[in-house]
Amino acid sequence: MSQQGTLYLIPSALNEAGDCGLSPETVQLILGLDCFVVENVRSARRFLRRIGYRKNFDHISLIPLDNDEDFDAAMLTPCLMGALPRIGLLSEAGSPAVADPGSALVRWAHEQGWRVIPLPGPSSIILALMASGLNGQQFAFHGYLPVKSQSRRQRLRELERESGKSGQTQIIMETPYRNQALMADLLDCLQPTTLLAVAAGLTRKEEYICCKPVAAWKKHLPQLRGLPCLFLFQARRLGAR
User: Fold this and answer.
1) Which of 61, 108, 134, 216 falls between 20 and 30 A from 223, CA-CA?
2) Looking at the domain 124-234, which fold is it?
3) Cα separation values, 81 from 93, 164, 241, Å
């Protein structure tokens, strides 16, 4: 197996109707690749066509990787035939291996002595943090919280206590159809003075970004169902007035 390969980490648009936000140089690099590891083959094909990819998909490799537990180096065999193999890890939306599968592949590439090259592009987590007005010097992304409301509410209280001690911004996400349930738990569990930011539908026409204290949110609830959404909150520091 070659030890001289290159793994490119390829971001994609946050929504299929939006601008990919990729530089011409990045697009040209992607157009030259023949092997991709992707979360979803169909959406990967649509993205590649959108940026001008003209190669016959029957003549290239699109290897699905739905989660990191499924990664096996053997799945890369079609991509390792040349002396200098090049593979693109393509995100479903935003940046790869961040709230997306791919970290197992990246670790494998490092273990093999490959060059790992992250390509610039959109990240919903960073965009939401930038627009929140919350602490961008110290933050933590927690991904999805427990599905069951009781466990989710317990976790929210734990994260708020940590934020109150450290000033850390806590960032969480939820599936579009459970946004309203999570929002209800946030408003019920968090302290009235805790700052809560909601970033929904980023880069879409329906984009909605707002930050205010929990007490103010209770006076007006946005309709979030059906939109990809990130929730960020920062508690008042313990001892602060």
Assistant:
1) 134
2) 3.30.950
3) 29, 53, 64
